[in-house]
Write a structure and sequence with these properties.
Blueprint lengths: L13 E6 L5 E7 L6 E6 L13 H4 L5 E5 L18 H15 L4 E7 L1 H12 L6 E5 L5 H13 L1 H7 L5 H6 L8 H11 L4 E6 L7 H10 L4 E6 L7 H4 L1 H14 L9
Parallel strand pairs: 3-4, 3-5, 5-6, 6-7, 7-8
Antiparallel strand pairs: 1-2, 2-4
Helix pairs in contact: 2-3, 3-7, 4-5, 7-8
């Protein structure tokens, strides 16, 4: 999927650069739709790039929605700032969402992210709830501290994961901040207490980075307007790839229910 572009799929493709509040130059593809009613801003996961969500256009583009696909800092063609697994990537998300608000001031803006990108979207909207009208979140971790503890097991299996857990306190030194401060449960509660928004939340049933208790906590924090989907047998971030029809169809139905998606092609 790293090499899929909107233009390759037959959709409009414009290259844009957006500068974040902390001075990072973010590269993105802008795919303007045939109406100005809905814009979807897509935030990829760690080690991915702007191409990750481009295949959405195959099922979703016919509604006339517009899309912005960004490269987070340290990824793709964006500036080479330190990757912080969602903390500072929130600046990328905020800048992209603000850019879309300027381009389509009357549109409904949907922040869509996977894993690190979902975390970036949550943090950006927690800081400024006016940036988005809804959140579509695939596999956001509960806290960065927990995710760093579980990461080795996800990569190399339980044995090596257990061996490497003593090294996780070093992650704060490497990142330059306390991983416990990146808390999606707290950020979602903040959003829903200040400016309640519909949330579409998905996880894999056997996600080793976000265990069951944490998935339940994030789901509860997402509030009364949450739509929750769990993909049977799927690991971290894999459910939407295993069953794209369920993911995209579910998201579009969710947006229609909340009056955030038109099916008018023009």
């Amino acid at each position: 999927h790293q090499w899929v572009s909107p233009g390759f799929m037959g959709w409009p493709q414009e290259t844009v650069y957006i500068t974040t509040a902390d001075g990072v130059k973010i590269h993105a593809w802008w795919t303007p739709g045939r109406n100005d009613e809905t814009v979807v801003v897509c935030f990829h996961g760690y080690l991915a790039n702007r191409s990750e969500f481009v295949p959405l256009l195959a099922r979703w583009g016919s509604t006339g929605s517009s899309f912005l696909f960004i490269d987070h800092r340290g990824h793709g063609r964006s500036g080479g700032a330190k990757v912080t697994l969602g903390r500072n990537e929130a600046h990328d998300a905020a800048a992209a969402l603000a850019w879309v608000r300027e381009q389509r001031p009357h549109a409904k803006v949907i922040a869509l992210g996977g894993s690190m990108g979902a975390v970036a979207a949550i943090r950006a909207v927690a800081e400024n709830p006016a940036l988005a009208d809804a959140l579509v979140l695939d596999a956001p971790y509960r806290t960065l501290h927990e995710a760093s503890q579980n990461w080795w097991g996800f990569l190399a299996g339980g044995g090596l994961g257990s061996l490497m857990r003593p090294a996780t306190p070093l992650s704060g030194l490497l990142l330059g901040f306390d991983p416990k401060s990146v808390d999606m449960e707290a950020d979602l509660r903040s959003i829903q207490s200040r400016s309640p928004k519909p949330v579409f939340l998905t996880y894999g049933e056997v996600d080793p980075i976000v265990p069951l208790a944490s998935r339940q906590a994030v789901r509860e924090a997402a509030g009364d307007q949450v739509t929750y989907v769990e993909f049977p047998g799927a690991t971290h971030g894999a459910g939407r790839l295993q069953d794209p029809a369920l993911f995209v169809g579910g998201v579009m139905d969710f947006l229609r229910r909340h009056g955030l998606l038109s099916d008018r092609p023009d």
